[in-house]
Amino acid sequence: MQRGRHAGSLADRAARSGFPGPPPSAPPPSGPPPSGPPPAGPAPPADTVRRPAGGHGRHCWVHDPPDAPGTWPGLLVEWRQREDGWHGRVAYTVVGTHGPVLVEAWLPAEQLAQG
Question: What pTM, to 2 d.p., does this model score?
Fold first, then answer.
């Protein structure tokens, strides 16, 4: 970015990025709710069902990660089972020589605590 130039708000730039936003929500139905179960119909084909792009992160505490002793707040992104047990993929920040550093790593479950 250059000083004195304004590229618009973050929302404007996101709209120009070409990445689709969340689908609009349907308006609430008008009138009284239908009685009984909804009518049965064919399920949509599997290839038309929209699946979320990713999971939901969960707060955790990272205990003594490599090169950063201590306990650090982190975000648990996913789990994976390996031959030696469960490992969590976490993102956390540590103090670096020039300020905070974001670290992403697979760590054994023993080093992670629910937050």
Answer: 0.52
